[in-house]
Amino acid sequence: MKMHTSFAKILLVLSLSSFISASELDFDGWLQIRLWHSFDDEPTPRYVERGKITISSIRSGAAVVSQPGLHNLNIDKLNILAKHGGKYRLKAIVQSSSGSEITFLTSILACNLLGSNLQDTLNIWLDSSAEPIAVNLVSQGPCSLKNPTAQSWTTDVQMKYPDGGPMPDTATYIQKLEREKQARESGENKDNRSFFAKYWMYVIPAVIFVVLSSATNPEAGNTVGSGGGGAQRQ
Amino acid sequence: MSVQKLNTKRFKWTLDFSYKNKQERSIELASPPGYTHGVALVHSTDHSRESHSNHLIIKKSWDLALGPLKQVPMNLFIMYMAGNSISIFPIMMVGMLIIRPIKALFTLQQTFKVIEGTHAFGQKFVFFLGQIVNIFLALYKCQSMGLLPTHASDWLAFVESQTRVEYSGGGFKYT
Amino acid sequence: MAPPILTIFRGNFNRFCIDSQFFQYFIVLLSLFNLSLCLYEDQVGKFDWRQNYVGKIKFANFDNVSQVKKIIVATEENVIAALNIKTGQILWRRVLEKGYAGRIRAFSNVADDELILVNGGVPAIVRYWNLTTGHILNEWPIAEQNPDRIEDVQWHINDGTLYHILPIYNSGVEVTAYDSKTGEKLKSRKISAPFISQETECVLASPYFICLKGDSSLAILFYINIFEPKSQPQSITINTIFGAGAEGPYRISLVPGNIAAISISTDNNRRKRLLLLENEPTPVPHDIDGENSVYITNFDDKKVVLELSYNDKITTVMATYLNENEPQSEKLHRIIHNDLYRPEIVATTCTCKSLKRYACKFLLSSEDHSISLLDKKVLWTREEALARIVAVEIVELPMSDRDQAIETEFDLKESLDVDSTWDVFGMLVRRLSSQANQVKAFIQAALGLEPQQSNQRADLVRDKFGLHKMIVAVTSAGKIFGIESKKGELIWQLRVPNIQGFSKESDQMVLYVQRGSRHFPHPPQCSLLAADKDTGSGVIFTFNPINGQALDGLTKLNYRVKQSMLLHVTTDSFLRSIIILDERDRAYVYPESATAVATSVGRNTYIFTVDKASGILSGYSFSYSTPQNLIANKVWELVLSPKNQRITHVVSKDPIERVHSQGRVLGDRSVLYKYINPNLVAIVTQGTSSVQKNTLNLYLLDVVSGSMVFSIVHKRTKGPVHIVHSENWLVYSYFNEKSRRTEIATLELYEGKTQSNMTVFSSLTTTKLPIVERQAFIFPASIESMRETITEKGITSKHILVALANGGVLELPWMLVDPRRSINPEMREEGVIPYMPELPIHVDGIINYNQSVFRISGIHTSPSGLESTCLVFVHGLDLFYTRVAPSKTFDVLKEDFDYYLIVIVLAALVISSYITKKLASQKLQKQAWK
C-alpha cells in the first residue's frame, strides 16, 4: 500500500486525433492548458491544480500531458462526491498561440470517473480560426462507487475541429442527368432485341410448366389435391 | 368416399341432371357421360376385391402419406414463379402455402382415421414430415420476401421513446 | 387445378412489371402527388383568417382633398396606408423596406391627392405617392454628404420643395432645397448659427430652428429663421417663458399640428408651456400638465391648442383659444372609453358647421399603439399593437359547463374517503342524480330557459377535436390579447401598465403557460415575464388566458432577470412553476409556494445562459438546493470569443415535442437509431474578425453536460439565418455570398445502429458523439422565418413552414430536405426522394394562397386534438391563422363522406342476406319434397 503518491508521476500520452479535416483549419498554433480541479461537494468549490497539457501543434493534435498522481485523500473525497451523486469539476485555463487566455469550466459525474478507473478524455473544440471554444471532460463510466485501482489519471486529449458545411451538389446532379440522358439514348438503340431474346427467362419456365402440367394432368387430382382438403373429401 | 359409394349405386351410363341435394352439387360437377370416378377401383374390385383390398389400402395410404412430399417440387416451382416482390398474388400464394399444411396437420387424425395397419405410424410420420417441410418452405419464402419480423426494424414501431432524465431551459441573457 | 396456374401467371406478370422499374417510378410519383397540398375554392377562409395592421402611427393626416375622404398614416413599421374614415378599414397599404432602410423620416401635407414621403437612411429615398390608388408616381434618392450625421438631419416639405436641413456643430445650418417631385437640386445655403453644438437640443419648427442650451434656470433658447437668407441668430431666456421659479432640466419638443410651435417642459416634466413660432416667438402664458398631450391647429382664423388629458379611463379634450388676449379654455369632449389609454392627438380635421360651432374629428394614438377616431364619441379603434407581437401561446379552451359538471362528479369521487362511502349504492345515487341534472339542463337548454351560469361565452368551449383554441398574444406595447382561433375575434385585451421588453433592441418578453385548461376547477394560468419600465427589474403578471382576468396581478421582482425557465413538474394544484435566475446567479421560484417542488427535482434541472456581449455560455445546476432555497451553481462554462464570432441564434427544441419513431429503417432493414437529445441546443454565430467575416458557424451543445456535440462552418456565407431545430434534425437557411443565393442546409443526428440506452436518455452518461448526416439545397426565394409543424404524438410527418419575403407561407415537407436524399440511386433508401439540388416551391404548398402576409416575425405552431392536424399562427405586420395536416387528415373522414350511403348499403346487405337465407331454406325444403 502506497502511503503517498505526492511525488510527481509524469504521464505522457501522445494522442493523434483520428481524423483531422485540415482543410477547414487555416492556421496552426499551440495551446497550453492548465488544469484545476475540485472534489468539493459544495456550490462554490475550491480548485486545486491538477496538471498541465501542452499541445505543440493544433493541426497534428499531438499533446503532452503531465499530471501528478492522485492523493489518497483526494480519492476519498472523490468517493464521497460519487456517493452523493455529485460532480467532479475541472477548470481549464487555455493559453493559445494568439495570446488569449480563456477559462473553461467542465464537469462530469464523479461516479463515472471512478467507474472508468480515473480514465478520461479531454475534448478541446476549436472554431474555424483555431481558437479554443470549449473544453469538455468526458469519461465513459460506467457509474460505480468502487475505489479505483489506479492512482493516477489516464487522460486522452482530442482536438475537435468544425466540419465544412455542405454545399448544394449541383455538379454531380448535372453529371447524373447527363448520364441518364446518355443511357436513354443508348437504351433506345440497345432495346431492339426480339421479344424472345429479352424475355426468354420468363417464357421458358412458363412453357415448361405448361408441358409439365399437361403431362401430369391425369394424376393432377392426386398431386395437387392430396393435401388436407383432398384427403378429407375421400 | 361417399361419392364413390353413390357412383357405384348408379347405372354406369346414366346421367342424372336433377340433383337431390345441394351437398352433392357443391362437391363436384357431374362427371361426363361414360366416366365414373371409381372406374379403376370398380375394375379392381370386380376382379380381386378380397385379395387386393389390403394391399390397395396400404398403397393408397402411402400415396396419401407421401402426397405432401410430392407437392414440394410443385411448391418450389410456385415459389420461384411468385417472385420476391410483395403484392397481392404472391402474398395469396404464400398464404396458401402456409395455411394448407397447417390445416392438414390439424386434421391429421381425421385424415388417417380410415387407415389402419402396421404402417399407420410410419405413414403418419411421413405425412407429418412432408407437411413440416412444406411449412418450412413457405417460411423460407416469407423470409426471402421479407415478411418475417426478424429484423430490428420490424419492431421499431414498438420501441418506446426514451424518457429524459435531465431537464433544461435557458437561452440568451435577457438584459 | 386452374386457380394456382392463373395466379402463377399473374404473379409472373407482376414480377415482370416490377422488374421494369415501373413500380419504383410509380411510388415516387405517388409520393410527390401526396405532397401536394392545396385548398379547394370553397374552403377559402373556412379554416383560416387574416388580419392586416399598419403599426404604431408616426405621421398621420386627414385627406379631405380627394373625393374619398380618408386618413393617410405612416407608421413605425415603415408602412404607409390609407384608412377609411368611417370604419377604420385599410383602403390600401404599402409596406416599405424593412428596418433602417425603410424608416419614414418626413411626411408632407396632403395636397392635390398627392403625398411626399422621405424614408430610409443612406441614401434617403423620396417617394411621391398618388393617394387614391397608393401608387408611387416618382421616386428618387438623395445622396447623403454626411452619412454619419444622418440621425441629426431634419426634413421639411413645403409647397413641393423638400428641404434637407443639416446642423453643423459650432458653425451653422446647411439647408439644401430639392424639387420634391423631380429630385432636382434647387439651391443650397448655409446659415450661420454658431450656437449649435453637441450639447444643444434642437428641433425644427419651420421656419425656425431652435436649440436649447443649458439646463439650469439660465437656460437659453436660440433660434434662427433658416429660410431667411440674412437672418441672425436670436435668443430668448427660459425665464421669459416660465417666469421665475421654474427649474430644470428642461426639454423642448415640437408640438404636432399645422402651426409651428414648440413645447418646453420643466420641473421634471410636471408642467410645460408653449412657444409659438409663427412670425416672432411668442410664449403662451398658460401652464399645461406635463402628462397631457398637446396639438395645435386653427379653427378658421383662431389658433387653438388642444390639450388631451387622461385620468382613470376618462379622456378629456380641452381647447384653448390663443387669439384672445387672455387664453380661454373650453372643454370639448369628455369620453370614457376602454380603448383609449393615454392617447395623443396625431391629426385633426374640422368642418365649420355653423358660426362658431365646429365639428372636429381627432385621430388619437394611444400609448398601447391603438388608433381611434374621435368624433364626439369613439367611432372606431384599430388595435395596432398586434402588428408587433413578441410572444404567443395557443391555449386550449375549457370544457363546456355540462362537461365540467361531469368532471366534478369524478372529482368528488377522488376526494371522498375511499373506505367510508365507496359503496355501490352511493355511487349509483350520485350517478343518477348527476344524469338527472344533465337531463334537466338539456331540457332547459332545449327550451331556451337556461340561465347564464358562467360569464364565459357559450361558444368558447373545447370542441371535439381540439381545433378551437385561444391565442394569447403579448405585444411590445405591453398589451395582451386573447384571440379566438376560429374567426380571429379579439375576445379580451389586457393592458399591463409600465412594462417593457427586457432589452431595448428586441422587445423580448416571455410568456409561460403555467397551467392549461384541463385541470378544472383550477383556472388556466399564464404568466408574462417582462421588465419594469422605470427600474428595469423584472415583473411577473399572471392572468387567465381564457377570459383575460388578472389572477395574482402584477408582481414586482426586486432584481433584474437574467434567465427563466418553466419547471417540468407541477405542484398539487397542477401549476408549473417558473424558475428565475437573476443577474447575480441567484435562483427564485415563482410562485414561492412551489419552492419545495422545484428543489425536489433540482438535481435533474439545469439552466443555461448565453451572453451575447462577452460570448460566455454558462450552465447551472440546481443540485445543491436546500428544500427552502433553490441554489444555482455553475457546472460548465465555455467561451465563443467575441473577437472571432458574434452569437446570433440560440435555438432549443420545442419542449412539448414528442418523437414517435426512434429510428430510421435502412435499405438492408437494419435500424439507424436517432440521436434524440432533448437538451441539445443549436448556437449560430457569425464571424467578426476580418478573416472570418463571412463565415457562419453552427455549434450543437448539450446544455446539461456542457459538452459540445458537433460544429460546422460555412464559409463565404452570411445571414439572415433562420433555423429550425426539432427531433434529431436541424434545418437552417443562410445566404451564400459566393453563389449569391439562399441555401437551406440540413443536419440529421443518429446514434448509430445500436441504441446506447433503450429506456432513458441522460445527457450525463451519453458520451458517444452522434453521426451527423448533412446536405444542402438551393432555395429559390428569400426567407423571413421558419418553423416546424408539431402534432400531439409526433406520428405525423413533419413539415417546415417557411415564410417567404413575397408574403407567402410555404409548407415544405421535411422529406424534401432530408439529408439522406442521395444522388446515387444505388444508395437510396425506401421512401427517400432522389437528390435534387434545388428545392421546388410548389404553389400548392403556399398555405396562405393569396392572403399574403408581410414582415413576418414569427410562426407559432401548436398541436390540435387531432394527431394529423397542426395549428399555425403567423404573426408579423399581419396575422394569419390556419391549420395544416402534413400527412393529410388520416384520422378524420373526408368532408364529403357519404354517411347515408354507407348506412343504406349496410342495412340493405344485412336485410338481403336474411331474405336470401330464408328463401334458400324454403327452396331446399321444396326440393327435398320432390
UniProtKB/TrEMBL annotation, chain A:
GO terms for cellular component: EMC complex. Keywords: Endoplasmic reticulum, Membrane, Signal, Transmembrane, Transmembrane helix. It is found in: Endoplasmic reticulum membrane. Residues 1-22 form the signal peptide. The keyword Cytoplasm does not apply. It is a single-pass type I membrane protein. Pfam families: ECM10 (PF21203). Its main location: endoplasmic reticulum. Belongs to the EMC10 family. PANTHER family: CHROMATIN COMPLEXES SUBUNIT BAP18-RELATED (PTHR21397), ER MEMBRANE PROTEIN COMPLEX SUBUNIT 10 (PTHR21397:SF4). This is ER membrane protein complex subunit 10.
UniProtKB/TrEMBL annotation, chain B:
InterPro entries: TMEM85/Emc4. It is found in: Endoplasmic reticulum membrane. The chain crosses the membrane at residues 77-99, 120-140. It is a multi-pass membrane protein. It comes from the Eukaryota. The keyword Iron does not apply. Keywords: Endoplasmic reticulum, Membrane, Transmembrane, Transmembrane helix. GO terms for cellular component: endoplasmic reticulum membrane. The keyword Endoplasmic reticulum applies. It holds the Pfam family EMC4. Belongs to the EMC4 family. Component of the ER membrane protein complex (EMC). This is ER membrane protein complex subunit 4.
TrEMBL record, chain C:
Residues 39-149, 159-384 form the EMC1 first beta-propeller domain. The chain crosses the membrane at residues 899-916. Keywords: Endoplasmic reticulum, Glycoprotein, Membrane, Signal, Transmembrane, Transmembrane helix. Pfam families: Beta-prop_EMC1_N (PF25293), EMC1_C (PF07774). It comes from the Eukaryota. One of its GO terms (biological process) is protein folding in endoplasmic reticulum. Component of the ER membrane protein complex (EMC). Belongs to the EMC1 family. This is ER membrane protein complex subunit 1.
